[in-house]
């Protein structure tokens, strides 16, 4: 080999080494990364829950796992992350060879993953042959943002509705097929009903339109970052997510689903950020301060609530207090008042330790709540409370639920995941009693206030996880006609809650409202399974479903389904597909709140 060839090979080796070092440089930046102290666990049982595994590790074995990363549900391997090398070594020693659910676990030290942003940049430098990427490169930043946030922005509204209606029908057909497989006794009924309901075993009503399609969102969370085109700090939406190597933020003035007042509020805060001389937070190296701005808008009176969130980094308490004072002054201006800013909160994001709650917004100025209306009732909304993001659409959704329910003045409604009480309070005049359950205690306080504010005296609300407090709440339902309504988070109901609903004979009907029908199918199937040792009560069978378009210009759709209790449990003939009790038990320990790291932009915006 010549000296020239040798030098060339050495240079190529050095470049490759430098590239590898760059991919792992984030480990030496000083900020904590869950990739630093990672353990790979293999040989896991077929059925297990993440919460169940965490209890084994942190409670029974005394380990200190801070995060678990599973590639997909049911995977036989995953990563567990720890705070330091000592904790990781302890975990490997305890888990390697440990017998759990009839399986012997294998635990080994895992290599950290390369920085996705660096990998993506290197891929871009190496190849530009991807057709889709080429198409995106030919699009303007505005078009790429619309594609990411409102993918149906260039489709006529009637066509959007047709697409969503078709998607809902396909999902419900999938549900039907699952029931067909798990319960042989229902096959004849399913087949005969499919002839009546256009291929489904129950009635699917036409999709309900959103009364408004422009500026319909009453809440948005905007990211603070750098605009790739201007290079300036910008308050808007990301064009992608960090895991795909995209951190650029684009302005939102062209997006049709955001109101003009909300856009003006965003620009007002953007002006403050640019004048502050404090950079936006960077997920690439954990530097910077400004993280996001949440805007809530009342469609009742136009009032605006702002929640400003930042990483304090090394700012002193004195500097933080001065910053809060500046925010109060900025949002007390005539321009802010013209935007309708009536409430401002500040949230200093701090590192969340194991077992600790995250940071909470601190009230800075103005009202502590804003007010909105649904079906003629007024609702007080706190910064973190759940409230349907399309107020006009919520009128349609809740009225549809009332019509589905077939309740009377003797009925008792169990409102599960009740939030600020919107559904239960809208039902109140149609039933004898409403009992609401909600995890967030602040939302329960809002629900109680809302009941009193609207002079409604037949509603009671209780704080706690649905799966924990449901039995005691159901004990308060003395009516002969008890109906439950559930409006759970995107991931659906906890299996324990499903089990308790199945096993409580007094619940005769159930309305399931889902913002993610694809995720809800699993709950639908479990509600409809044949009786077993775990699911002792008679099954719920679907009767009617109504899709409601709460999210124009996006792929998302809300779905309300009425289930009725099967009159009698069909005796087993020994041929029906068996419910795997281990699977149900494992699901009982599955947490409904999944970690949402690297959430795609569309999911983040539409939640």
Describe what you observe in this structure:
The strands form five sheets. The chain has an eight-stranded mixed sheet, sandwiched between helices. Strands 10-9-8-11-12-13-14 form a seven-stranded mixed sheet. The chain has a four-stranded antiparallel sheet with strand order 2-3-1-6, with helices on one face. 38% of the residues are buried. It is globular. Residues 1-16 and 568-607 have low confidence and may be disordered. The chain is of the alpha/beta class.
Termini separation comes to: 61 Å
Task: Give me the side-by-side strand order of the main sheet.
Answer: 7-22-23-21-20-17-18-19
Helix segment tally = 19
Instruction: State the helical fraction.
Output: 25-40%
Strand content: 15-25%
What does this entry show, briefly?
Helix content is 36%, strand content 20%. It is an alpha/beta fold.
Map the helices and strands.
Blueprint: H1 3-23, E1 38-42, H2 50-60, E2 67-69, E3 77-81, H3 85-95, E4 99-100, E5 103-104, E6 106-109, H4 116-126, H5 131-137, H6 141-149, H7 157-182, H8 187-196, E7 203-204, E8 219-226, E9 233-238, E10 249-250, H9 260-276, E11 290-297, E12 304-310, H10 317-330, H11 334-339, E13 341-348, E14 362-366, E15 370-374, E16 377-381, H12 391-405, E17 412-416, H13 422-427, E18 433-438, H14 441-453, E19 459-463, H15 466-474, E20 482-486, H16 495-503, E21 507-514, H17 517-528, E22 540-548, E23 558-565, H18 581-588, H19 601-606
Helix pairs in contact: 7-17, 15-16, 16-18
